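Protein Record: Sequence and Backbone Structure Tokens
======================================================
Tokens: labelled as protein backbone structure tokens, with as many entries as the chain has residues.
Question of interest: how does this chain fold, as expressed in backbone structure tokens?

___
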Amino acid sequence: MIEFGANLGMPHTRSIDNGLFELRVKSKEGIARAFYCTKVGKRIIVLHVFVKKTQKTPPKELKIAHKRMLEVLHDDT
């Protein structure tokens, strides 16, 4: 991400909506997802990470990421 930016494209990243992105990580231990956003003049901000156990992303995990993204984007510091 340092070299290519926040949107690496599939299969590494996927845009969820309205500036929320998903980093897709797979290893022999399992599959993990990290939600992140960017802020102008700031770095990439990781909002939430979880281990994926089902095919679909649980709505609870998306809700956490959306809530945190709104907090980050509305913080002027």
Remarks:
- The chain has a mean pLDDT of 82.
